[in-house]
Design a protein that fits this description.
By secondary structure, the protein is of the alpha+beta class. The chain has a domain of 166 residues: Jelly Rolls (Sandwich), CATH 2.60.120. It is built from 1 helix and 17 strands. The strands form 2 sheets. Strands 4, 5, 6, 7, 8, 9, 10, 11, 12, 13, 14, 15, 16 and 17 form a 14-stranded mixed β-sheet that branches. Strands 1-2-3 form a 3-stranded antiparallel β-sheet, with helices on one face. The longest helix has 52 residues. It starts with 9 loop residues before the first helix and ends with a strand.
Length: 311
């Protein structure tokens, strides 16, 4: 007599179910990562094309474009180049005046010899853990984002807050008074394995912030008038704004070390040593009508320098 065929036991069903679920999770994870890698490569290619367009623009005009959408259509032919695939708040109808990268564009002098400086950044990749940056070497790279906190709460690139204490992974602290707005452009690890952070003071923001920085990492403060770059120093940046004349005055006061400043109107480099102060007044561009929010982005290049003073 044949034995009756037996079905699966409860334990066997549980084990098989566990294996099936595990395989499904693995496949879904691989698919999601593959999809994210694809989006990152598209964004990387966008930044490379924008970088080449800026290089061609500089060759023609001996200057950098005030805003990256000015590259369209003479230097960038397709509008979709200005959109990151992970930018869910932007539709192609808005392009290129509204775009994924304009708020993270640091307009620098076209003849700056330091090719390691960043001028364009996109922080949106791998759930905010990675970003893509374009450097003055005209190269673009995928990089790991560093965590940054304000009053011990994590903030993200693009966030603009008023006042507070900001902390960076290299030990740098920024203490901003209660009136000044501070924006985070990005904090990341460069291809040469260095920490690099860029913060900004938007147009029309008024007040002071004190930076205490140590080590050999890159750290920059961008104001409407200047870019202050440091390595191992302590200094204060104050910004004043005259709404009547649309003029902004940035003052750098160095407590110790040296702050390397760049006049944003014409790219002139000015070193400010311990005990010295630099005051720079510029004429800001008028408020644009393209829908961009200037108080949420890196300040635009000033129209011209009004006054400079070292004391």
């Amino acid at each position: 007599m044949n034995k009756k065929e037996k079905g699966f036991s409860l334990l066997e069903i549980i084990i098989i179910g566990f294996i099936v679920i595990s395989l499904a999770v693995m496949i879904l994870g691989l698919f999601s990562r593959s999809k994210e890698i694809s989006k990152s490569m598209i964004c990387l290619n966008n930044l490379k094309q924008i970088s080449m367009a800026i290089e061609n623009y500089q060759a023609d005009w001996k200057s950098s474009p005030n805003q990256i959408y000015a590259l369209f259509p003479d230097y960038v032919k397709e509008k979709y180049i200005f959109k990151c695939p992970n930018d869910k708040n932007l539709t192609e109808v808005d392009l290129p005046s509204k775009n994924s990268y304009g708020n993270f564009y640091v307009n620098r002098s076209f003849n700056d010899e330091d090719t390691g400086k960043i001028y364009l950044f996109c922080p949106r990749h791998f759930n905010g853990t990675k970003g893509i940056g374009a450097f003055l070497s005209y190269s673009a790279n995928i990089m790991a984002n560093n965590p940054v906190t304000r009053n011990n709460i994590k903030i993200m690139p693009g966030d603009v807050n008023t006042g507070g204490t900001y902390r960076f992974v290299d030990g740098t602290t920024v203490v901003a008074d209660s009136t000044v707005k501070v924006g985070l452009c990005g904090s990341f690890i460069t291809p040469d394995n260095k920490n690099y952070s860029v913060i900004f003071v938007p147009e029309e923001s008024v007040g002071s912030l004190t930076v205490t920085h140590s080590g050999d990492s890159r750290f920059e403060v961008v104001t409407p008038a200047l870019i202050a770059g440091v390595s191992g120093t302590k200094f204060t940046v104050s910004n004043a704004y005259d709404s009547t004349s649309n003029q902004s005055t940035s003052t750098v006061s160095v407590n110790n070390g040296v702050v390397n400043c760049e006049d944003r109107s014409d790219g002139v480099k000015i070193s400010v040593s311990s005990g010295e102060n630099l005051s720079l007044t510029v004429l800001c561009p008028s408020v644009t009508t393209d829908g961009s929010n200037k108080t949420k982005s890196v300040p635009l290049k000033p129209l011209k320098r009004i006054k400079i003073k070292i004391f």
